[in-house]
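Quick question, first post here. What does this chain look like in 3D?
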Amino acid sequence: MNVDFLIHALLGLTPVICFLVGLIFLDSYRLVSVRWVLGTIAVGGLMAGASYLANDWLLNLTGIEFDSFTRFLSPLVEELLKAIVVIGLIRLNRIGFLVDAAIFGFAVGAGFAVIENIYFLQALPDTGTGVWIVRGFGTAIMHGGATSIFAVAGRALISQRKELGLVAYLPGLIIASVVHSIFNHLPFSPMATTLAVVVLLPLLMMVVFQQSEKSVESWLDVGFDADTELLELINSGGFSESHVGEYLHTLKERFEGPIVADLLCYLRLHVELALRAKGLLMMRESGFDIPADEETRAKLEEMKFLEASIGKTGKLALKPFLQMSRKDLWQFYVLGK
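> Answer (accepted):
Ran it through. Tokens below.
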């Protein structure tokens, strides 16, 4: 094993693993078990082997020219095999929130990319360093990102329309396959294509994540002007029968009891303070300089404590309900001083 081989291995395998580790750090309460992530990476690797066999069989069966096959049919085959793993995790109730979907989806793609690159390391030992930069930062990130997009889109839709069954996963599969196909189509130099993946794919993942959150918000029927209704729903006896109650019921399966209590307290406080903020800001705009009272200050302090308690993961889980913008929050904290 020479130095060049080690360099190529690091370039081909390290970027996608580092990206995955970054996603896992979003999970501040470690709701996604490292053991399950490692298992998912391994299963993703098995799917790489399955795709090699499936692609070889289909290529011989169809007689399609190789370049056309890799641009049109191969992306669908590979994304479908990776999607099977994600669907299995959702069915096993291992993916509860969108952040879970992003992590597990990328883990499947990471496992797929690692095994694929290990195969090419053995099959093409004399390729240059540039090839492994492309495979590590381009192809590998594409595999993880495309499957992550599928997982987020599929989890968001299945949470709203369970009656659709497997059909709910079709839009995400189409998006992932198109992304994969576009990557295989790009006419630019390999380095330019890799740069495009590194820059554009995370942005696309962010857009899909945000649109999925909006879709969940729409299903929950929680809008910017619905704070009063949400507060009444929380205080009413019919809370558990609503979409909001159904969504929050999954918290019990993901968080420990004290954290669930803090999450619900945080949600109630957030809604109450949002209403107070709107009132205070309206009074300020009308020329009435009304300072925040002691009760408001106390609630602000409690909210700060709860933010530390529930962590980043808890805030991500409640994000569909937290409609106040950064600007509004900043104004409100200023008013509380």
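Residues 227-335 form one domain.
The radius of gyration is 23 Å.
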